[in-house]
Amino acid sequence: MRAKDVMTTTVVNVSPDHSVRTAARIMLDNHVSGLPVVDDDGRLVGLISEGDLIRRTELGGGAPIIDATLEVDTRANAYIRRSSWRVGDAMSVDPVTIDEDAPVWRVAAIMQERGIKRVPVARDGLLVGIVSRADLLRAVLSAGQDQTAAGDEAIRRSILVRLGENTGLEGLEVQIAVTDGIVHLWGNVVTAESRKAARILAENVRGVRGVVEHYSEAYPK
Fold this sequence. Notes:
- By secondary structure, the protein is of the alpha+beta class.
- Helices cover 36% and strands 18% of the residues.
- The protein has two domains: 140 residues, CBS-domain (Roll); 62 residues, Histidine-containing Protein, Chain: A (2-Layer Sandwich).
- It has nine helices and eight strands.
- The radius of gyration is 25 Å and the shape is elongated.
């Protein structure tokens, strides 16, 4: 599944010349927490979000304390972002974007790494969509079920393959037997979390009716 398969293509956006109040109203009216900012040619130039707006001087309380040792331009830019009426001054510039053919797992990784809720999708610099956390949740709901072939040996092979797919179980010499859809696990799996991961991995394979653990060591205290 790729970004183009899950992205929202009808994207509410604002111009850098719109007012901050207009951006806030559009967010409220459309129940979104952030907006792409595009110029007259449709090119993405920034993002404005709730996070940008909660720093505004309109909220009162006086100016935030800014480290006096920071560069003059850094302090001046902080003042501009919290005080200017223009979206172009208050927005976050140089937003991270993705290509429409980017895999969905990469989109999710970017959100997690950057601590952001949405990623614009661009084609040749033009905004063509946006992927939000809600879009990823819908992708989870619509994801197809595992396609492992029927049969005990097919189940066993599928589990063996998955053990090496960034599960934390690599190198633990997990031994597997499958009888009538029941998976039996043995091997060098001594921690509670590793055993849980092995059980969940097996349960996620199509055709598995249950999992029985035969580890000789008890869970660590």
